[in-house]
Amino acid sequence: MRDVVAAGLPAARRLAEAALARPGVPLSTLRLQVPLEPASVRDFVAFEEHVEGVRRSIEGTGGVPDAWYDAPTFYFTNPHRLLGPDEAVPFPAASRARDLELEVAVVVTGEGTSLSVEEAADHVFGFLVMNDWSARDLQGREMQVGLGPAKGKDFATSLGPWIVTPDEVADRRDADGFLELVGTVEINGVEVGRDLLANCGWSFEAMIAYASRDSRVVSGDVLGSGTFGHGGCLAELWGLAGRQDPPPLVDGDVVTLTVERLGSLTATIASAPEPPPLPAFRPSERHRAPAQPAAG
After folding, report:
1. Which string of b and e fits 240-265 if b means at least 16 CB within 10 Å?
2. Residue 77 is part of a domain; what is its CATH number?
3. 80-115 pLDDT per residue, tens
4. How many domains is the chain built from?
5. By residue range, what is the domain housing residue 183?
6. Strand, coil or helix: 37
7. In this structure, what are the phi and psi dihedrals at residue 185, rounded to the nearest 5 degrees?
8. pLDDT, tens only, 163-221
9. CB-based burial of residue 273 (10 Å sphere; 0-12 exposed, 13-18 middle, 19+ buried)?
10. How deeply is 270 buried, as exposed, middle or buried, from its count of CB atoms within 10 A (0-12, 13-18, 19+)?
């Protein structure tokens, strides 16, 4: 699939037309996998409402940091733990604050460095639903170090069910170019979140441009929008309510994320095996390396 993305949208359309000319296969007989193996996965945090609620939940402080408004911040997540539709999610066994995150991701086509927003528009291959699973207790602890997230996030990310090209959603762009698509979260068939993708603080073109600034984006890069507000994750609701209501996810829970035009992404919660223990920090007297001898 990376080769298809690299070839660009015109080539992809020709492949699609050729496929449609042949007899189809019932979707119910297939097991969908991750739509592509990304070159990298960046995840942005572009919804103001999400930042406010999660910050209160994890850090115990309200409001949105001033720095958030400066640029569309992101982190790199693990491209080697991607799950497709209907795959079980192996949460860290020790986590008791298991959470979901409703997002939309953009797939990049072509390469670029320090792109303008206008140039970045030519690098949009398509969109898909993304779930950035989160172990909030692990995340909150490790981020006290001032780095991360790490093990609170990198155990799993779900992508799917397919890649939708920009022409399929072009009629849903608002005056500023943002996509007016409704996204919902259901846990065991009960809706707990609903928001508009257009509430995102930055467009996907701006995210691609920022990711490329003084750096490089390539075909197959995946950029997540960050989590929708208004129930796009449980931690936001916990922060607003002051308690874990709805409760954290547990083994056997079924989570379904749905975004208009892009489809639904469902997964069942599970636990990974207990990992082997790590040794404790080794306290020791600090020694300094000997000084370099003066040159004769």
Report:
1. beeebeeebbeeebebbbbbeebbeb
2. 3.90.850.10
3. 999 999 999 999 999 999 999 999 999 999 999 999
4. 1
5. 2-7+34-271
6. coil
7. -120, 130
8. 999 999 999 999 999 999 999 999 999 999 999 999 999 999 999 999 999 999 999 99
9. exposed
10. middle
